[in-house]
# Entry
Amino acid sequence: MPTYNALLIDDDEKLFELLEEYLGSYDFELTHAMNGADGLVALEKSEFDVVLLDYMMPEMDGLEVIRQIRPKRDIPILMLTARGDDADRIVGLELGADDYVTKPFNPRELLARLRALMRRSSKELVSELIEVRDIEIDIDGRIVKRAGELVDLTGIEFDILVALARRMGRVVSRDSILSASGRDGIYVGDRTVDVHISHLRRKLGDTDSQKRLIKTVRGVGYVLARD
# Structure
């Protein structure tokens, strides 16, 4: 099995010690940053496969860290959040986090979530290319191009686009979109899906309401138009 390099951005030293030992037994090598600023520096200096990001940190919270990461790279981000703060989790997902676990958590659950993220972001999959209009979606490389130009998407935006593209011409409900993109275990509202669709449209240049690529079906969900 491959060894994954994971970065934990969390001010809890004991949590790092626990996860370093546990995840180390399952091919995850963990690096620790005690705050958001140090985490951003670590990301600039080294290559990581995934980020474990605490929401509640002094000076720079997890949401601000996501805001600074996302314009620069598409790395899987797993948020660690306090129990009961559903609104904060939803905001984190809307900003570009890919998944979350609530504290306190079972290390086995965290491991399962990490493995799922690694499967979704793996480049060792059978090559698959989906084309619609002038858009190319490279499943293997997790690359999207429109008219030959690269389109920078977050992990969840890419997975939602693929979920729609694989059902091209069919209406897909919001719940089904989350399920097909591997987020069916995440508690979110309809608004979260709508926000990601809005981001997708903007990044794809899908702004003409008369020729829209991703069409809204009111009260149901969305459809990726064939023509």
Summary: The radius of gyration is 18 Å.
